[in-house]
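Below is how a single chain appears once it has passed through the pipeline. First comes the sequence as given, then the structure the pipeline wrote out for it. We keep one example in the README because the format questions we get most often are answered faster by looking than by reading.
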Amino acid sequence: MSISVVILTLNEEKTLPDTLASLRGLCDDVVVFDSYSTDATCSIARETGARVVQRRFDNYAGQRQAAISEVTYKHSWILMQDADERMDPNLWSEMIRRVIEAAPDTAIFRFRRKDHFMGKWIKHSSGYPTWFGRLIRVGHARVERSVNEEYVTDGNVEHLDGHLLHFPFERGLAHWIDRHNRYSTMEASIIVREALEMTRVGELFSPDPVRRRKALKSLGYKVPFRPLLTFVYIYVLRGGFLDGYPGFCYCVLRSVYEFFIDLKKTELQKEMR
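Resulting structure:
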């Protein structure tokens, strides 16, 4: 038994070669699910033997859901990998072993990432550990939420020990800022649309780390001076200062991103009055 990999792309000619290289000799079924790139992304994918499927982008959840439900894969488990993530061979070996041993009702495996910035793993300032449930059994999971997507299943969820390696700044700081400008617009829209439903206090103590993070995030949107508190939380309380100058810079970027969300949320709320 093996695992298929699907990679969402849009003009990823700079990041995709290293991503595909990290899968070489491990995966025999790689699909590049492309949003009609205008650079060399698709040709790079085809040159390495990956299949290319194209779909017009609507939102992140829609694109990921289409990737897992509208493509035929060689294997019954698929990994949703991003173009700026690199596979660790140890994680791959663990995934293969775990899907072979998986009970029939196991539908998702979660793992963590190691985020890199300025040439180092920013363990503390990145909010590590954050769990991502992107190794899924075909036909047993769905994707919700248009940004910062959530993988939902009625089956069992298990956790892996290994990590994916994440390089979110590989296309440059300007690209990261532009992308998070778009993210903040989408996030603000979701917050307003959902009217900030009240978080159940009990969720903050859930044994499920994803549910705890979601509850904490929802509660956080109600707190005054949230961007400033975000900086204090990740830089001081979570130890971002231990990551040195890269940690400081990343914590500032994160707080600015949260500031954008709050400003856009306020703007949308005024427009709706």
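The mean pLDDT is 90.

See the next section for the split statistics.
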